[in-house]
Specification:
heterodimer; A: alpha/beta; Spore Coat Polysaccharide Biosynthesis Protein SpsA, Chain A; UDP N-Acetylglucosamine Acyltransferase, domain 1; 12 helices; 32 strands; about 25% strand; elongated; B: alpha/beta; disordered N terminus
Chain lengths: ~450, ~675
């Protein structure tokens, strides 16, 4: 279908410290005991997209990601892993791999996307409108811990529209305005020309840009070449394309050709004009075409391009792993409400306990829990809505609620862990109490400590 | 006015058509029914004319039959005339006129011809089930019967099998059993029971139906191993009378194992069975009857586009495809990347058809051809395959994909036929790149000659009919009419345009907008006001989706209404239509072949939230909404058809169709 896929897997994101480290780049963060990148790759594989380019920031990270991919997908996907220097924006990353891009359309996917919206839908919308860019929008996640008690309500009030402000046309197919919520201070500026051409614009703050874009390659490369200051797809390229859609500065492929033909053969062009008018008259014009024709139809044709949006339905799951909160949310959802994403089969109790895991006496593992391979739990433990990784050793009388415990973690007797993320190789000695904490890899917490809302990492 | 007067004389339709053609020219045979109705000779003839086609078809099952068949045939055919018994079983509600017309003797053969000539032959197959068994008995002994069986579902089929078993010994003596089966079929299908006027032909038919029943029974006996062999033989003897018909019919049925499946198969084959071999390849397969469960299921399994059938379909239109709107597009989008064999350009066009982004016969046709052109350009023959075959298969798969997105228009069907013809006729010596470029230029040429140039010519012609001071009425939005109006305006003619529009599409508004921009003085009204506005109109220009060979104009729904009102007001009706849209099929109504639109479109009034009486209508079982896309305007209401071959009366359409087929396309 003439699409090439680029997965931007990122490197070691600052937002996710202390979860990520040199050893564990963002792409390999475990979500329900699988690297987060695997969700994207499997989504693409499900759509029959098997030739991928994965772009990773940093050589080391690229090596690790490449190693993992070649191990896990050796005969299923054909993946090229490209390394770009650290701390470059998404636009720069694309610039770096520009010479690999050959297909007419490029699908750019963020590697931290966990969703079940088929990318085909975006590509189809893109193709149908012959758009320059199509962005997937999904409803902004309701963040916060799962206990939908007062805490959740508080969280909602706490965060103001920090996602996107998005303007759509009445048919909800075209993107008229986009801004990151964080950038918007008081007011937003909407171009009059767009507003005049469309007539009606719908501003939405409940949508989130899912970082899944379909670009027309020629346009994307042209923009990247010409605007060397553009750093990020989301903050520079996309708003630029949306802003300039009615006074297009990009050359759509095909336009120059038509002009050449016209000089050569007037007659053939004449019939072309007749035909194109025939087809145009018989198709529902988007406001772009109306605008391009001008008010009286005789004005010199103005160049426009289309920026489309595909809005994923509310029933679909679509979240980006770009914060620690999102990390625990996704972990919770993947074994909870969006369990079809995890690819595991759930037991009758609605949880996943690996057969090799050992449970002590009177230990309960509640629904929406996951217990990885080879983990051992002592007596009288209780696990609720948590993910516990492989080969963990958990003592007696331990409570784990709403938490993520990665691999090879040792937890002493009598610990209580709530709403926390504990990375690999951490050691918790007896009677540690953690609430809403993040513990970096290899950290050791001495017996009897109590932490609340802290981020603990090895210096 | 002259034009109208002249043509008004002409139509007087059914009889007129007869003389127009030599008996050899098949399409008009359908029309030729009544005048030639002196039955025996014709019935004799019809087997004879049929006997042309059996030549190409594998030998009949009973070796003895072919020889004995002819002599026996006449008496057997004659005998039924004496039996008035089961007339009442046959006729089906609203089809009486056509039946009485077709029912007279020569028709069977001609109807079969329709089937074969007919590119789509959907409507021929559409006819069979409705016109119950008897009518076509003489030409395909099993066809009609099977069809009733099909129509009335398994029950009737079973009943038929049973009944025919019982009558197997000698049918001539026991018509009752058969007639009862027929009644069974008729009762399910038919509403109206008696039709005295058409008694004779019907009688004849029923006996043929009996014979068919006989065959059916034989088959049943063989398959189920129930009936004794003696019976089978006897019945074979009796049925020799229909041997000729059988020779035509049976081979197709032989392939099927069980009678029940064979009913479905014969239904399908009824459409293209008599096809002459050379024609066969350019004839697209018959359109599916969507009230046939088996075949719908089968088609669904093959389908690219996932389709859920609409729930409240109108009973009379169940044979047409109709799906839940709103589910197809998302689903197709979801599987964007799975549809690997589909060329992107074709896929895009399909999406646009499905989403309604492109509409109008010409535009859809051009869009489709352009997509095919792209696909051909990117095509490369896989190893160990020949371009001709593989590319034809490819194109067919594209076509079926597009059909699933939206049923093809007749213009598209014709274009596809031409394209396939070109592919088939490619010299084998051509290299792949040469073949591809020749195909691409062929497509270009087709678009250029048949659409662009044709439009120009038609515009010229039509302009001779526009005078200063005219008030021209048009309906909907026809690209051709628009060109005509604009051209006349450019020439400086002083005229006024009345644009009549209708819900739900309101296509006329776009036309209005474009015309007003160009400075024409326009009046815009809705179809409800047609009779009010008509008295000031001097000419009616209408576009058409297709013109059929009996002069019927197949066009946007509402056209017939406008034409009739104009006729009543004695305003000439001029149909503008490119000749590539002509079709040799004959259609008498807009029921058997049509397209169903989204019923929601008529239940919702845009911009009026308060008009919500039909919300959730799908949940009400006793409410069905019908949103027809096309209708058929009888030729009586049409003064003139303006095509690229000149301005012709509707009666001349068959000539153009014939010439077009035989000389211009190949």
């Amino acid at each position: 279908m003439d699409f090439q896929v680029v997965v931007l897997a990122g490197g070691t994101s600052k937002n996710l410290v202390p979860l990520v480290s040199q050893e564990v780049p963002k792409a390999l963060l475990p979500v329900a005991n699988r690297p987060v990148l695997s969700y994207v790759l499997e989504l693409l594989e499900l759509s029959n997209l098997k030739d991928l380019i994965v772009v990773v920031e940093g050589q080391d990270a690229a090596l690790r990601v490449g190693g993992w991919i070649s191990g896990a997908y050796v005969d299923r996907l054909h993946v090229e892993v490209a390394a770009v220097p650290e701390d470059v924006g998404t636009a720069d990353a694309l610039r770096a791999i520009a010479h690999h891009l050959t297909a007419n359309n490029i699908l750019v996917v963020s590697g931290d996307l966990v969703c079940d919206v088929p990318p085909g839908a975006v590509a189809a919308a893109h193709r149908r409108h012959d758009a320059v860019v199509t962005a997937m929008l999904c409803s902004a996640p309701v963040s916060g811990p799962s206990e939908s008690g007062p805490a959740g309500g508080k969280d909602k009030t706490k965060k103001p529209g920090r996602y996107n402000i998005i303007g759509l046309d009445p048919t909800k197919q075209f993107l008229l305005y986009i801004a990151t919520g964080a950038e918007v201070e008081k007011d937003i500026r909407v171009q009059k020309s767009i507003l005049r051409a469309v007539g009606q614009m719908e501003m939405r703050a409940d949508l989130m840009d899912a970082h899944l874009y379909a670009f027309k390659r020629s346009v994307l490369q042209e923009v990247l070449d010409q605007k060397s200051t553009f750093q990020s797809l989301k903050q520079d390229v996309l708003p630029y394309l949306v802003r300039s859609q009615l006074r297009s500065e990009v050359l759509l492929n095909g336009t120059p050709q038509a002009e050449d033909n016209g000089n050569e053969k007037v007659a053939s062009q004449n019939s072309q004009v007749v035909l194109s008018r025939l087809v145009a008259n018989a198709s529902t014009p988007s406001f772009h075409e109306l605008y391009a024709l001008g008010s009286n139809g005789s004005a010199p044709v103005r160049r426009t391009h289309k920026c489309c949006a595909y809005i994923a339905s509310k029933t679909k799951y679509c979240v980006r792993l770009n914060s620690i909160q999102a990390f625990s949310d996704i972990n919770r959802d993947v074994i909870g409400e969006a369990s079809h994403l995890s690819g595991y089969s759930f037991s009758a109790h609605n949880n996943i306990i690996h057969p090799s895991a050992e449970l002590g006496l009177k230990t309960t593992v509640g629904p929406h829990c996951m217990l990885g391979e080879g983990s051992q739990m002592g007596d009288k433990c209780s696990v609720k809505r948590s993910v516990i990784g492989r080969h963990c050793r958990i003592g007696s009388n331990v409570k784990v609620v709403n938490s993520v415990v990665m691999n090879h973690v040792t937890i002493g007797d009598g610990c209580s862990i709530q709403g926390s993320v504990i990375c690999s190789n951490v050691q918790l000695q007896e009677r540690v109490v953690l609430k809403d904490c993040q513990v970096g890899a290899g950290f050791v917490i001495t017996a009897g400590c109590v932490y609340k809302g802290e981020s603990l990492a090895r210096k | 006015m002259d034009a109208r007067r002249a043509s008004r004389m002409v139509p007087d339709p059914k009889v007129r058509h007869v003389g127009f053609f030599t008996p050899g020219a098949p399409p008009d045979r359908a029309q030729s029914g009544p005048p030639e109705s002196s039955s025996p000779p014709v019935s004799d003839m019809s087997p004879a004319s049929n006997s042309l086609s059996p030549v190409m078809i594998p030998p009949p099952r009973h070796a003895s039959e072919p020889l004995s068949s002819r002599p026996v045939a006449v008496p057997v055919m004659a005998s039924p005339l004496r039996r008035p018994s089961n007339v009442d079983s046959v006729p089906v509600g609203s089809y009486n006129p056509s039946e009485s017309l077709l029912g007279t003797s020569p028709v069977p053969s001609s109807s079969s011809r329709i089937g074969d000539r007919d590119g789509f032959s959907e409507e021929s197959s559409g006819w069979f089930p409705r016109s119950s068994s008897g009518k076509f008995a003489s030409s395909f002994p099993s066809g009609g019967f099977d069809l009733t069986a099909v129509k009335s579902g398994d029950f009737a089929a079973a009943a038929a099998a049973a009944a025919s078993n019982s009558t197997a010994v000698s049918v001539a003596k026991k018509p009752a059993g058969v007639s009862s089966t027929e009644k069974g079929g008729g009762a399910v299908t038919a509403v109206q029971s008696e039709l005295p006027s058409s008694k004779k032909p019907l009688k004849e038919k029923t006996t043929k139906a009996e014979r068919r029943a006989l065959q059916e029974s034989q088959r049943a006996a063989k398959v189920f191993g129930k009936g004794s062999k003696a019976e089978g033989k006897k019945s074979a003897l009796v049925s020799t009378g229909t041997a000729l018909g059988k020779t035509v019919k049976q081979p197709s049925q032989k392939k099927d194992d069980t009678p029940l499946t064979s009913t479905a198969a014969s239904d399908k084959k009824g459409g293209d069975r008599p096809t002459e071999k050379d024609r066969k390849k350019d004839v697209p397969p018959p359109r599916m009857q969507f009230d046939d469960k088996n075949r719908v299921d089968k088609a669904k399994r093959r389908a690219v586009v996932k389709q859920t059938e609409a729930r409240n379909r109108v009973e009379l239109f169940r044979h047409l495809p109709q799906y839940e709107h709103g589910t197809q597009l998302p689903d197709l989008e979801l599987r964007f990347f799975q549809l690997d064999p589909m060329h992107p350009a074709v896929y895009k066009v399909g999406l646009q058809f499905l989403a309604g982004d492109i509409f109008g016969g010409n535009a859809r046709c051009v869009a489709m051809l352009r997509a095919f052109q792209e696909a051909i350009k990117d095509y490369s023959t896989p190893p160990e395959k020949t371009l001709v075959r593989d590319l034809t298969a490819k194109i067919s798969s594209y076509v079926s994909f597009l059909t699933e997105c939206r049923p093809l228009s007749i213009s598209m069907g014709n274009a596809i036929r031409v394209l396939k013809n070109r592919i088939a006729k490619l010299p084998l010596t051509l290299s792949e790149s040469e073949a591809k470029s020749s195909l691409c230029s062929d497509i270009d040429r087709f678009i250029n000659e048949k659409i662009v140039l044709a439009d120009k010519v038609i515009v010229r012609y039509a302009n001779t009919k526009i005078r200063d001071g005219d008030v021209l009425l048009t309906y909907g939005s026809s690209s051709l009419v628009e060109m005509i109006l604009l051209y006349a305006h450019e020439l400086g003619k002083q005229f006024r345009v009345v644009i009549v529009d209708s819900r739900p599409k309101l296509e006329g508004q776009a036309l209005l907008r474009r015309l007003v921009e160009k400075g024409l003085s326009c009046t815009y009204t809705h179809i409800n006001a047609a009779s009010y506005i008509m008295h000031e109109v001097t000419r009616v220009f209408l576009g058409a989706s297709s013109v059929l060979s009996n002069g019927t104009v197949y066009s946007r729904v509402g056209t017939a209404c406008i034409a009739m009102v104009a006729h009543a007001f004695r305003v000439p009706v001029l149909i503008c239509c490119e000749a590539y849209k002509f079709h040799e099929r004959v259609q008498l109504d807009s029921i058997c072949s049509n397209e169903l639109g989204d019923p929601d479109a008529i239940s919702k009034v845009p911009g009026r939230m308060d008009v919500n009486y039909l919300d959730n209508w799908a949940n009400k079982e006793n409410l069905q909404l019908l949103n027809l896309i096309y209708d058929a305007t009888p030729s009586d209401y049409i003064s003139m058809i303006i095509t690229d071959y000149g301005m012709v009366p509707p009666t001349s359409v068959p000539v153009i169709v014939r010439e077009y087929r035989e000389h211009l396309w190949i």
